[in-house]
Amino acid sequence: MMVIADHPITAKAHTNIALVKYWGKLDNQLIIPQNDSLSLTLDEFYTQTTVQFLPELSADEVIFDNERLSESASKRVRTFLDHVRQLAGINFHARVITKNFVPTAAGLASSASGFAALAGAASRAAGLNLNRRDLSRLARRGSGSATRSIFGGFAAWQQGQDDATSYAYPIDEQPTWDIAVVALVLNAKQKKISSRVGMRLAVETSPFYSAWIKASQADFETVKTAIQNEDFELLGHTSEQNAMRMHALTLSSDPNFTYFNADSIQAMNMVKELRLQGISCYFTMDAGPNVKIICQGADAERIRCYFQSSFGQDQVLVTRSGTGISISN
């Protein structure tokens, strides 16, 4: 028999950087993607969330970065909690207190760490004791990329065809090779076109969408092989190409749009200049203007200094492989 926790449950989950992107859904309600994807969990960016289901509450209370969210602003969280309540067979409302150590909705995958942490804390608080596969399935219902943040290091999201078969799994949770990411926070403001809207436009209107799916499936197998062989050049090159093909979908949608800004383009050109100088590094971008530079750890400090001279000290952060979700009773 499941028993609701009589005290708050806290979970911590890290964000991830997609090396092979998911961009578009087969099923919008279940958040089942059009293709497999693969990511690296990052240690510097994370969300910490505390949940308790309480009989005295008449509605869910969601406190985000010390501010209580309105009913409209907390809709996604409340919908997610409804799913947890259904799974657990309870009807209590919850108090959710969450703190983001990631710039929200700016292309640094804050929803990944956010819904992974919420899945971990809410499920345990509701009396569910899920294994990591089922946690990844649950997290997926809040945000697709959250399914991968259950795991550390390199993780993949299996497309699947239904709720039972679409989940993430680890590839290498504790990579021993020297890989780092230099994150450029070029704009921490909420983006004007959400990932959900951008994906829908691409699926429905881009004439290149089917080619993107085919190329991404090939990229997925290539990056898996690169990880197994610790082939940095192959991993970096394929990840960069995959990112640019994804962003080509935004430019070919109707109406067309882009997540790039002037700083994004400058940063990408600076990465190419570093390569001409003999420094092995590659860029990737999710749905936002921020650029992430994949590099070898030995070069991370030099790359950080190079970009700080153009964008400032606070905008350039070095991170490495992070751990999977942790849940404390």
From TrEMBL:
Keyword Lyase applies: yes
InterPro entries recorded: GHMP_kinase_C_sf (IPR036554), Mev_decarb (IPR005935), Mev_diP_decarb (IPR029765), MVD-like_N (IPR053859), Mvd1_C (IPR041431), Ribosomal_Su5_D2-typ_SF (IPR020568), Ribsml_uS5_D2-typ_fold_subgr (IPR014721)
SUPFAM superfamilies: GHMP Kinase, C-terminal domain (SSF55060), Ribosomal protein S5 domain 2-like (SSF54211)
Record-listed E.C. numbers: 4.1.1.33
Nucleotide-binding recorded as keyword: yes
Top EC group: lyase
Residues in Mvd1 C-terminal domain copies: 181-314
Record's keyword terms, sorted: ATP-binding, Lipid biosynthesis, Lipid metabolism, Lyase, Nucleotide-binding
Pfam families linked: MDD_C, MVD-like_N
Domain Diphosphomevalonate decarboxylase-like N-terminal: 13-168
Any one GO molecular function term: diphosphomevalonate decarboxylase activity
Protein family per UniProt: Belongs to the diphosphomevalonate decarboxylase family.
Protein name according to UniProt: diphosphomevalonate decarboxylase
Biological source species: Secundilactobacillus angelensis
Lineage: Bacteria, Bacillati, Bacillota, Bacilli, Lactobacillales
